[in-house]
Write a structure and sequence with these properties.
There is one protein chain. The protein is an alpha/beta fold. 48% of the residues lie in helices and 17% in strands. The chain has 18 helices and seven strands. The strands form two sheets. The protein has a five-stranded mixed sheet, sandwiched between helices. Strands 1-2 form a two-stranded antiparallel ribbon. The radius of gyration is 31 Å and the shape is elongated. 25% of the residues are buried.
Length: 403
């Protein structure tokens, strides 16, 4: 659309400084207001079928009936708009529909700020400081509450039949319940799909983390269409592998090596931590499971006198510690640690950092869904070396692989 210079010169004839153009009462604000009102006058003309003051409107069945005033919030300001009325009350403006007080895009700003961890009060003050718009905490809550239907649809969407890799972990949040603040565990399932892309399959909330609830999680994944998971990477929670295999009996469960090392070092004072870590690294960096067993035996001989629980801990979980030894380095890097999902948890903790306890479980789902939506926008590329890993998985899991 070409705007004539003559019109621009007329608009700017009294211009002296940027405030005259861009300020609260500047030309841009007045122009926006007048254009909206002019557009609605055109809508009224189209509705009645004749121009304002036209003879067709005299003694007709319907006619203009003045204006009503309405405050409308736009992306950068609050405008008081004169809405035309007709005598029969049949006019439905399209520019600003009845009961609408915000232009498209304004709600998106509120949702975006909420997703990055700002509270309703923070958002209220920010909108006032930046846009000089007064928005109540109630309105902000109404806008963000509208996302709950999206959360339900996302949580119940159908899933792919096969996922090569699944990471399971949970994060603890503070939530109000029965006038008390309690810790709640939010369970997350992050998968790598056949294209090598990360995909969050869902989130669930419970009072505590436990193998029994993880059984509920994997059962729901199956009910939503998952038929097979090749490898599942988990922390060392007791009963976790059994819970997974009760639903997906052929899934290879891999315990997170980082968790194993971290738990082992709980028993070690600072002066020995570096040496113990180095010797454990020889175990999980071994090229084969046979050499890993030899390295663990050497570790046991060297350290059991001082820290007998460490080697026992590894031996007790050996069947779920060693699966990654069967794979080449392309796959080992992807499955020997749950870092992929722990990085998601770190991002969620940043969002939670500015908040106290969330008011209820619905608020937890709302905040996490919006935050996870932002996080997943960064997952634009397949995980590193995915093509070689995919070929190795196809060979190793022959008969269960779907390309």
């Amino acid at each position: 659309m070409v705007i004539a210079n003559k019109l621009l010169d007329e608009l700017l004839k009294d211009y002296k400084n940027p405030e005259d153009l861009l300020g609260k009462n500047g030309i841009m604000q007045e122009l926006k207001k007048r254009l909206i009102e002019r557009a609605m006058e055109a809508e009224m003309t189209n509705h009645l079928g004749y121009e304002k003051h036209a003879v067709e409107g005299r003694n007709g069945s319907n006619s203009r009936n003045g204006h009503s005033s309405k405050k409308v919030i736009s992306n950068d300001s609050e405008l008081e708009i004169a809405i035309p009325r007709d005598r029969d009350g049949e006019f439905e403006p399209q520019m600003i529909p009845k009961n609408q007080r915000r232009f498209d895009g304004f709600d998106d700003k509120i949702i975006s700020m909420y997703a990055y961890g700002m509270t309703t009060r923070d958002i209220q003050h920010h909108l006032k400081d930046i846009y000089n718009v007064d928005v109540s905490p109630t309105l902000i809550s109404e806008v963000t509450d509208a996302i709950i239907d999206d959360v339900r649809s996302w949580q119940n969407r159908p899933l792919d039949p096969v996922y090569p890799i699944l990471f399971l972990d949970c994060i603890v949040v503070k939530c109000r319940e029965e006038k008390q603040i309690r810790n709640k565990s939010v369970f997350l399932a992050l998968a790598v799909n056949m294209e090598g892309q990360k995909e969050l399959l869902g989130m669930w909330i419970a009072q505590n983390e436990g193998a029994k609830f993880w059984l509920h999680v994997v059962t729901e994944l199956k009910n939503r269409g998952v038929e097979d998971i090749l490898i599942s990477c988990v922390d060392g929670l007791k009963g976790f592998p059994e819970a997974i295999n009760s639903v997906f009996p052929d899934t290879q469960v891999q315990l997170c090596i980082v968790h194993m090392v971290r738990n082992s070092l709980k028993y070690v004072p600072y002066k020995d931590k570096k040496a113990v870590s180095a010797d454990l690294k020889k175990v999980y960096n071994s090229p084969t499971v046979e050499e890993a067993e030899t390295m663990l035996a050497d570790f046991s001989e060297k350290w059991d006198g001082k820290y007998p629980t460490i080697s026992k801990q590894w031996l007790d979980k050996w069947d779920n510690v060693t699966p990654f030894f069967a794979f080449p380095k392309e796959i080992r890097k992807a499955i020997y640690t749950t870092n992929a999902i722990e990085s998601v948890n770190r991002s969620l903790r940043k969002v939670l950092k500015t908040r106290g306890a969330l008011p209820n479980e619905e608020a937890v789902f709302k905040l996490f869904y919006l935050a996870l939506r932002n996080i997943s926008r960064r997952w634009t590329m397949p995980i590193r070396n995915w093509k070689p890993a995919l070929n190795q998985l196809a060979i190793h899991f022959d008969g269960r692989f779907r390309l």
